[in-house]
């Protein structure tokens, strides 16, 4: 039976209004309205047009309701600049990620969740220290944020939203934490986003909707302290009124952060006075470093997803097969798992859904 909820979800994923979809497929807006309210079934011709325009397999529209959660249960990194269409498209991607996550967790034993609840801690700097202590990280720099999060049971997905208004977001689903990172951003920005969302997960789990300015400030402070521990910073950079942008660009590589984030952290812990801080911020803006990070690092990719898909690939199961099984397009799956560059999808040993085998 045709599922009107799936039509609405697919439409929102493409950032279309009902009227916009109607125009693209050549029907009156009332047709889309009645389809989404479950009052009509689409004709074969209308369904063909919907599937083509929205780029979803026709079978997608006949599946069961997809698990979701309220928008206010999600922490968005840049809510103020985000449009409703961008928010709804990102939330639709999250729902498809749930489908993929469920399919994978039925077949693999992923790392257990190892996050601590710090919702009663109002000092984000202390919270960052507590998480580092809990994970026995000491003061060392974090080489790979995505790998660290995955090792602690956070399921990390990528987003390919082609908009700078959607940085990242996170949420708890049952007892499983999720983080979504937009790959449009620079690698350094994405690492900070990952730490920011970790802050939300540990600081605001039981705080209800956590999209207020105070919660965003707390998550920012947590991320800064988590990625750049004060003791480590002080051991490597002394107070100076003349430190140059070029030296900061070299220094930022140690902690895998943007030059702007490092400058902010140095000012926060008192290693830059107000005058020098403002001067460096002006230089960062003048040189265009807010738009394009200088001497950027390689982008982090998922370790878990690469291992999962490599194992599936060895069994003759490719991303195309999984997309087919879930009735999603290949692109939707690809966009969620960091592209997984280097994995082949040319195997032809599995043709039908029924041939997919459970991996023990």
Question: What does this molecule look like?
Answer:
This protein is mainly alpha-helical and 360 residues long. The protein is built from 16 helices and 4 strands. The chain folds into 3 domains: 62 residues, lambda repressor-like DNA-binding domains (434 Repressor (Amino-terminal Domain), Orthogonal Bundle), CATH 1.10.260.40; 219 residues, no CATH class; 57 residues, no CATH class. The chain has a 4-stranded mixed beta sheet, sandwiched between helices. Helix 6 packs across helix 9 and helix 12 packs antiparallel against helix 13. The longest helix has 22 residues.
Brief sketch in words of this structure:
With 360 residues, the protein is mainly alpha-helical. Helices cover 48% and strands 6% of the residues. The two termini are 33 Å apart.
Kindly state the number of beta strands. Answer: 4
> Structural class given helices, strands, pairing?
mainly alpha
Average pLDDT metric: 89
Element-level helix/strand string: HHHHEHHHEEEHHHHHHHHH
Residues in β-strands, percent: 5-15%
The proportion of residues forming helix, as a percent range, comes to 40-55%
Tally of alpha and pi helices: 16
C-alpha end-to-end distance: 33 Å
Output the strand order for the largest sheet: 1-3-4-2
Return Rg in Å: 22 Å
* Domain module count: 3
Query: How is the biggest beta sheet arranged?
Result: 4 strands, mixed
Q: What shape does the CA trace take?
A: elongated
Which stretches are low in confidence, meaning pLDDT under 50 for 5 or more residues running? 341-360
């Amino acid at each position: 039976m045709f599922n009107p909820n799936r039509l609405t979800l697919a439409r929102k994923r493409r950032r279309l209004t009902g009227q916009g979809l109607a125009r693209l497929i050549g029907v009156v807006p009332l047709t889309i309205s009645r389809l989404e309210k479950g009052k009509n079934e689409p004709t074969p011709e209308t369904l063909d047009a919907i599937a083509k325009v929205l780029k979803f397999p026709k079978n997608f529209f006949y599946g069961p309701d997809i698990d979701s959660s309220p928008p206010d249960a999600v922490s968005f990194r840049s809510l103020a600049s985000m449009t409703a269409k961008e928010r709804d498209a990102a939330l639709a991607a999250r729902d498809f990620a749930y489908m993929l996550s469920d399919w994978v967790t039925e077949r693999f034993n992923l790392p257990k969740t190892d996050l601590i609840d710090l919702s009663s801690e109002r000092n984000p700097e202390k919270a960052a220290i507590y998480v580092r202590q809990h994970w026995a990280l000491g003061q060392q720099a974090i080489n790979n944020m995505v790998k660290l999060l995955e090792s602690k049971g956070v399921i990390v997905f990528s987003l390919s939203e082609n908009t700078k208004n959607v940085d990242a977001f996170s949420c708890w689903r049952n007892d499983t934490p999720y983080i979504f990172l937009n790959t449009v951003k620079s690698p350094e920005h994405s690492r900070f986003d990952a730490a920011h969302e970790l802050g939300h997960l540990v600081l605001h789990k039981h705080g209800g909707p956590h999209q207020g300015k105070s919660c965003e400030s707390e998550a920012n402070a947590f991320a800064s302290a988590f990625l750049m521990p004060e003791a480590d910073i002080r051991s490597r950079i002394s107070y100076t009124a003349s430190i140059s942008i070029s030296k900061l660009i070299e220094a930022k590589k140690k902690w895998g952060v943007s030059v702007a984030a490092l400058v902010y952290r140095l000012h926060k812990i008192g290693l830059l006075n107000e005058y020098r801080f403002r001067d460096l911020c002006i230089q960062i803006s003048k040189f265009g470093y807010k738009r394009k990070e200088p001497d950027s690092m390689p982008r982090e990719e998922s370790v878990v997803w690469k291992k999962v898909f490599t194992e599936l690939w060895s069994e003759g199961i490719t991303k195309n097969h999984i997309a087919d099984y879930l009735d999603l397009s290949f692109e939707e799956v690809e966009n969620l798992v960091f592209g997984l560059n280097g994995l082949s999808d040319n195997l032809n040993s599995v043709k039908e859904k029924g041939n997919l085998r459970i991996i023990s």
